[in-house]
Write a structure and sequence with these properties.
Elements lengths: L13 E2 L3 E9 L6 E11 L4 E5 L6 E4 L4 E9 L4 E12 L5 E13 L2 E9 L5 E9 L5 E10 L3 E5 L16 E2 L4 E10 L13 E12 L5 E5 L3 E4 L6 E7 L3 E3 L3 E10 L5 E7 L7 E4 L4 E6 L4 E10 L3 E5 L2 E5 L4 E5 L3 E6 L7
Parallel strand pairs: 1-8, 19-28
Antiparallel strand pairs: 2-6, 3-4, 3-5, 3-7, 7-8, 9-10, 10-14, 11-13, 11-15, 12-14, 15-16, 15-17, 18-20, 20-24, 21-23, 21-26, 22-24, 25-28, 26-27
């Protein structure tokens, strides 16, 4: 039958996440009628062999002279490295002789994007994810979508648009030129109904997956999803102290209140005693009773503390000197530089 398959030697680059498309044509160049034609296309990768076409289809009864069998194959590329398209054709001649041959087409699947992630942990159990996406191809691409699909334990807020204008922080340009990098920021909050008690997220937690969709300069669409992003929750020791409410600025020589939360992060019950220590170098002084019994605090539970301070020195002052003693073990937990507050005089009250 002659050269039944004609494939180009080089069709360009194929990138991970794009759709590989191939037009297969089997043409009868002879003057004879052939029967029972089977066309099968497989894709061999470094780890598996995939059947793209003809795996379970019945044979085509006959193919006359100058006749052809045409098919377009589509496959989403999900592996890097060498790929081999194997096209196999079998048929029966008029003399009942069974014929068979194969054609091979080799191509490389390249990596289109380089994605790096960084995690930042906030005091409020929020997690900020920074994703750096770099175009490592030789041509510009259009970034259609870069989103974070959170796991069941988190809800997500995208921080890549201007709140007032509602526009992308990248402006109207959607192009990502070769070697260019874009940084995307997301805020994740633990869901109370499925997460651990407040302040007691421990161990490795699954954040979610990045979903990236782009188009090349010829309009071909590609899509990549990262593997689940893992984040190691910070360790807080036996007790965690977080600030719940504090004023941004306070007047000098006038008491002010702030609220904090104490969380028992260990597996035993504590009997806590509150100690307030004033430092001669600090411009803030505790108001209230030191040595107060707070009572028992069970494992993975928390309590709120409403405390009062007095500022005597203007400027940015740091709150320190809070001590919590577990009377069961006679162990004291020191908390310094808890938060900062701006102190101003009455004549310099900020607008």
């Amino acid at each position: 039958m002659g050269e039944l398959l004609t494939l180009p030697q080089n069709f360009g680059n194929i990138f991970l996440g794009e759709t590989f498309s191939c037009y297969v044509c089997v043409h009868n160049d002879s003057t004879q009628l052939v029967k029972d034609i089977m066309v099968k296309a497989d894709l061999q990768t470094s780890s598996q062999r995939l059947t793209l076409s003809g795996g379970s289809s019945p044979p085509i009864p006959e193919l006359g002279p100058e006749g052809s069998i045409d098919e377009v194959i589509h496959h989403e590329v999900k592996e890097l490295g060498t790929h081999i398209l194997v096209c196999a054709v079998s048929y029966t001649t008029q003399s009942s002789e069974k014929m068979y041959f194969r054609k091979f087409f080799k191509f490389q699947v390249l990596k289109p994007l380089d994605v790096k992630t960084k995690f930042y942990n906030a005091e409020s159990d929020e997690v900020y994810l920074e994703a750096q996406v770099q175009n490592i191809t030789a041509a510009p691409m259009v970034m259609e979508k870069v989103s974070l699909e959170p796991s069941a334990s988190y809800s997500v807020s995208e921080l890549n648009t201007e709140e007032k204008a509602g526009m992308s922080i990248f402006g109207t340009s959607v192009y990502l030129n070769p070697k260019d990098i874009r940084q995307y920021l997301y805020c994740l909050k633990p869901k109370a109904e499925v997460g651990a008690p407040r302040g007691v997220l421990k161990g490795v937690t699954n954040i979610g997956k990045l979903d990236i969709i782009w188009k090349t300069n010829m309009g071909e669409k590609g899509r990549l999803q990262t593997s689940p992003l893992q984040r190691m929750a910070p360790g807080y020791g036996d007790i965690r102290l977080t600030v719940e409410q504090i004023p941004d600025g306070v007047p000098m020589e006038k008491p002010f209140n702030f609220k904090c939360r104490v969380t028992n992060c260990c597996e035993r019950t504590m009997d806590l005693l509150l100690l307030l220590q004033n430092s001669g170098t600090s411009g803030l002084y505790w108001c209230g009773v030191s040595g107060k019994q707070l009572g028992k605090l069970g494992p993975n539970t928390n309590m709120e503390l409403n405390l009062t301070l007095l500022a005597s020195v203007p400027g940015l002052q740091s709150i320190s000197g809070l001590r919590l003693t577990d009377t069961y073990l006679k162990r004291t937990y020191e908390h310094d530089d808890i938060a900062q507050v701006f102190v101003y005089s009455d004549q310099e009250e900020p607008a």
